[in-house]
Specification:
Layout: H1 3-19, E1 23-25, E2 37-39, H2 41-60, E3 65-67, H3 77-82, H4 84-87, E4 89-94, E5 101-103, E6 110-117, E7 119-121, E8 127-128, E9 132-136, H5 142-154, E10 162-164, E11 167-174, E12 189-192, E13 196-198, E14 208-210, H6 216-221, H7 223-230, E15 236-245, E16 260-270, H8 273-276, H9 296-313, E17 321-325, E18 337-345, E19 348-359, H10 361-370, E20 376-378, E21 383-385, E22 388-395, H11 396-407, E23 408-414, E24 420-426, E25 437-441, H12 447-460, E26 466-468, H13 474-484, E27 488-492, E28 506-511, E29 517-521, H14 522-533
Parallel strand pairs: 3-15, 25-26, 25-27
Antiparallel strand pairs: 1-2, 4-5, 4-12, 6-9, 6-11, 7-8, 7-10, 13-14, 15-16, 16-22, 17-18, 18-19, 19-22, 20-21, 23-24, 27-28, 28-29
Helix pairs in contact: 2-11
The protein binds adenosine-5'-triphosphate (ATP).
């Protein structure tokens, strides 16, 4: 897609999300806060459905995974043990002119002519020896570089700037310059992404605490408690959904990279390969089903497949996804393999979830830092070991964005009068759709229709989200629900009341995607809808 088309599509998505109450800028009336977002009524339902469905699939429907809900602020030693205090940082560079901050690894390489200045002189005779340089496109006059350099020295208190020591050089694929204005950037320096706070009334170094940058560590530090109370045996998993915070240098792409977000993580504890090898395989197990003698590679493959199937089950088909296997040199020193599941967003193919085989690094670190044993005694093989782990770690907000981008469609349709119009529709999978069904009396000024429609609404409401709407022409009401992504619409008309006796107590059921309507008995509605939304 051409750049303009991509931007147009994203702009339409962002505008629809605001207009229909999916996503708002946080603190909007105060000008917003960069990197923070709020979910409106439809967004909150969508998000809740995604999290509930993940929770169901990952723990409630499985024998071998249990849940946890830990506090956001935890003992600061946890982040020392996990390595976050020392290594959880991104390289950061600043523009020497605008002071805008960038992640060094996200600066696009550029080519052109770099103009270097050794310093500047002022009309008053003042001299500055701060070196500076500017990158301009090949063929552009030196004046454009001089203009930027002059601004640089003016910002340092000089007037009537005379630039000193100008020289130029051809530069290829350099990431030292700000792509927006050509100004030199500072050298990269690490920037820790953890938000710091203090516990208790005294703000002192001993009271420093952090907002968790991931939910995973809580699972590791509660491993023993869960093991002892949940009556699980390795292999088994602990999962958690919750907020995480990262002071990202450059929040971008709408809710894709923000500073407060939610994660859905599973830590699946497995036997070290040498112990697994001693365990006999089960008979009568279907191919692909977990086996007690699986090593880390099989478990890793298994979880990648499980996660892809889960994405498919909420409407993200394999064709919308992609995979990135981290290369050996990209892996963390303790990781055996990491695969990222990517989604083809309009702005590029980017990570939704990472699935890592992390060895026993985390539990061993906590054992070392806390002095408490993290060992597991395997009754079957009589081995004692620190379990290894497979970690599927997904971001809720990125997934919401993927679902909205995937669902967004503009279609040309012809109305009853033969006029062509554009129908905007969010084709969410019924499982995640914020509202499952719209209920409409054909006319609002006919009390019998309204009464019957309200009866249908009340019949369905205990089982699903229902939107009751009696305002405006029926076509307009359908369109409003199309934009909200509501998969079904029910209309109560005069036939429902028995105008044609054979149609008494039937309604029309409209399918959002095909726009086809069929008549259905009211008594059949609930089982039919439940079969589609569960
Ligand atoms: P990235 O490389 O994009 O910064 P990451 O590899 O650091 O992400 P992980 O630490 O593996 O991410 O976190 C697991 C998941 O949490 C990611 O796949 C993503 O879905 C989500 N996530 C991470 N950082 C953010 C963020 N700043 N905003 C929204 N979601 C995030």
């Amino acid at each position: 897609m051409a750049e303009q088309k991509i931007n147009e599509r994203m702009e339409k998505i962002v505008s629809l999300c605001k207009r229909r109450g999916f996503i708002f800028q946080s603190s909007e009336i105060y000008g917003g806060l960069n990197g923070f977002w709020d979910y409106g009524p439809l967004g909150a339902e969508l998000k809740r459905n995604v999290k509930d469905y993940w929770w169901k699939a990952m723990t409630q429907k499985r024998e071998d995974v249990v849940g946890l809900e830990a506090s956001i602020i935890m003992h600061p030693k946890i982040w020392e043990a996990s390595g976050h205090t020392t290594t959880f940082s991104d390289p950061m560079v600043d523009c020497l002119l605008t002071k805008n901050r960038f992640r060094a690894d996200q600066v696009q390489p550029q080519s052109g002519v770099a103009y270097f200045y050794s310093g500047a002189k002022d009309a008053t005779g003042k001299e500055l020896s701060d070196a500076f340089s500017v990158l301009v496109q090949k063929g552009k006059p030196p004046e454009s570089a001089r203009k930027v350099a002059t601004q640089f020295y003016e910002q340092r208190g000089m007037t009537g700037v005379q630039l000193l020591g100008e020289r130029s050089e051809l530069v290829e694929n350099s990431t030292k310059y700000n792509p927006e204005n050509g100004s030199l950037l500072t050298e990269a320096r690490p920037f820790n992404l953890m938000f710091e706070t203090h516990t208790g009334p005294i703000k002192s170094p001993e009271n420093i605490a952090y907002l968790r940058p991931e939910t995973a560590q809580a699972i590791f530090v509660q491993f023993k408690n869960v093991l002892e109370t949940a009556r699980q045996k390795v292999p088994f998993g602990i999962c958690q959904i919750g907020k995480a915070f990262r002071n990202e240098i450059n929040p971008r792409n709408y809710i894709f990279r923000s500073r407060e977000f939610e994660q859905m993580e599973l830590e699946f504890f497995i036997k070290p390969d040498e112990v697994a090898a001693k365990t006999p395989a089960l008979t009568d197990v279907a191919e692909g089903e977990p086996q007690p003698n699986w090593g880390w590679e099989q478990w890793h493959k298994y979880w990648v497949e499980q996660r892809v199937r889960w994405y498919e089950s909420i409407g993200l088909g394999r064709d919308t996804l992609d995979f990135y296997w981290q290369k050996k040199e990209e892996l963390a020193h303790y990781a055996k393999a990491t695969v990222d599941i990517l989604f083809k967003f309009p702005f590029g193919t980017e990570e939704l979830e990472g699935i890592a085989a992390r060895g026993n690094f985390d539990l061993s670190q906590h054992q070392k830092f806390s002095g408490k044993s993290m060992e597991y005694f395997d009754e079957e093989t009589r081995d004692k070991y620190v379990p290894h782990v497979i970690e599927p770690s997904a971001g809720v907000d990125r997934l919401i964005l993927a679902l909205v981008c995937n669902a967004f469609n503009e279609e040309e349709v012809t109305d009853d009068k033969g006029n062509k119009e554009v129908r905007t529709v969010l084709k969410f999978h019924p499982r995640v759709a914020p509202v499952k069904v719209g209920v409409f009396p054909l006319l609002k000024n006919k009390p019998e229709l309204v009464k019957k429609a309200q009866e249908v609404r009340d019949l369905l409401r205990p089982h699903m989200t229902v939107f009751y709407d009696e305002a405006g022409a029926i076509g307009r009401r359908y369109r409003r629900q199309d934009e909200a992504g509501t998969p079904f619409g029910i209309t109560i008309d005069f036939d429902t009341l028995g105008e044609k006796p054979e149609l008494r107590d039937t309604v029309t059921l409209r399918d959002r995607d095909t726009m086809k309507q069929e008549r259905m008995d009211i008594s059949e509605l609930l089982p039919f809808l439940l079969s589609r939304i569960r």
